[in-house]
Design a protein that fits this description.
With 76 residues, the protein is α+β, with helices and mostly antiparallel strands. The chain has three helices and three strands; from the N terminus they run H-E-H-H-E-E. It is globular, with a radius of gyration of 11 Å. The model has no long low-confidence stretch (mean pLDDT 95).
Length: 76
């Protein structure tokens, strides 16, 4: 439910490329580590937008989204 408030938000290209490059390099990052990739938009809004648009995935089944939640790139 927390993510749905960002359904109309769009992540700028620069932020998306920075985050996806970091995930390519490291495999996965925590939410806290991902926030540094966002320079053009509000970090949580940008990350939420990328989750909702299926560029990245986070595990929503185990616990609420927090700083230690793992973020991984979706390959498609």
């Amino acid at each position: 439910m927390d993510l749905l408030r960002y359904a109309r938000w769009h992540c700028p290209l620069g932020d998306r490329v920075r985050l996806l490059a970091a995930l390519d390099e490291h495999g996965s990052l925590t939410v806290a580590e991902c926030l540094a990739a966002f320079h053009e938009t509000v970090p949580i809004a940008g990350l939420s937008s990328l989750v909702l648009r299926r560029f990245v995935e986070i595990d929503l089944d185990e616990a609420r989204i927090g700083p230690e939640t793992a973020v991984r790139r979706i390959r498609g």
